[in-house]
């Protein structure tokens, strides 16, 4: 099963640390997983997300940036249709 959430982050980013904690709690609650991508490994990712990190995607679509709201993330993961 592939992860439903992707977190784009970079080392030393306190907002990324906050987002990771929220994502881990929600994933544990819902029994899902997430992948994390370090944007510093790719010039293209730095160009795309450098000013917005952390950026979260749910099911391949951009969901949030800068902050992750746990209720909004839960809603995105539990909505149907």
Brief synopsis:
With 81 residues, this protein is α+β, with helices and mostly antiparallel strands. It is 41% helix and 23% strand.
Summarize this structure as a short list of keywords or feature phrases.
81 residues, alpha+beta, Glutaredoxin, 4-stranded mixed β-sheet, 41% helix
Q: Could you characterize the architecture of this molecule?
A:
This protein is of the alpha+beta class. The chain has a single domain, classed as Glutaredoxin. It is 41% helix and 23% strand. The protein is built from 3 helices and 4 strands; from the N terminus they run βαβαββα. Strands 2-1-3-4 form a 4-stranded mixed sheet, covered by helices on one side. Helix 1 crosses helix 3. The longest helix has 17 residues, at 14-30. The two termini are 20 Å apart.
Give the overall form: globular
CATH homologous superfamily name? Glutaredoxin
Architecture, according to CATH?
Answer: 3-Layer(aba) Sandwich
CATH class term: Alpha Beta
What is the rounded distance between the termini?
20 Å
Task: Supply the number of structural domains.
Answer: 1
| Assembly level | single chain
Q: How much is the radius of gyration in Å?
A: 12 Å
């Amino acid at each position: 099963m592939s992860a439903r959430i992707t977190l784009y982050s970079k080392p030393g980013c306190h907002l990324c640390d906050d987002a990771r904690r929220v994502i881990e709690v929600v994933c544990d609650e819902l029994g899902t997983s997430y992948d994390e991508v370090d944007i510093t490994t790719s010039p293209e990712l730095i160009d795309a997300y450098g000013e917005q990190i952390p950026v979260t995607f749910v099911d391949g679509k951009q969901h949030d940036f800068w902050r992750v709201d746990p209720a909004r993330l839960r809603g995105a993961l539990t909505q149907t249709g």
